[in-house]
Amino acid sequence: MLDLISHSAGHVVAMKAGGVVTARELQRAIDAIEAAKRQHPLISLLVIIEDLRFMTLGALLKDVGYGLTQLGDLQRYHRAAVVTDQAWLKHVAHLEERLFKAVEIHTFASRDHAAAKAWAAELPTGAHESPEEDGYHGA
Questions:
Q1: What is the pTM of this model?
Q2: What pLDDT, in 10s, does the model give residues 68-99?
Q3: Are the CB atoms for 120 and 12 separated by under 8 Å?
Q4: Which run of H or E residues covers position 107?
Q5: Residue 44 and residue 98: Cα distance in Å, rounded?
Q6: CATH topology of domain 2-134
């Protein structure tokens, strides 16, 4: 199961995964990421993972294929917050952070869900869509 969930920041694509993830579910997430990229110069991800067992072969192939297409577009990704208590997923996230240095990737325990949500919403100075959000309040 992979479901999109709401987030108050428009540049954040949030989702919740668990059990078995199918190619159709993964495609909905990819579509949401692409839609966010069309609307925002930088996007972030919030992924809440509870008891993930596996991805179907179709989902795994789609995930790898989409990931490869994004290698030249990593500058569009700001942060990825991974919320999980599954130790093996924390190791995967740390490996990805070392491989994809352009994207900040942090793991959070399930109890720290609110902190993960807030962290994913933060943008660097100068990246906000309105000057006021960057601290500019007129001359």
A1: 0.85
A2: 888 888 899 999 999 999 888 888 888 888 87
A3: yes
A4: strand 104-108
A5: 17
A6: Transcription Regulator spoIIAA (3.30.750)
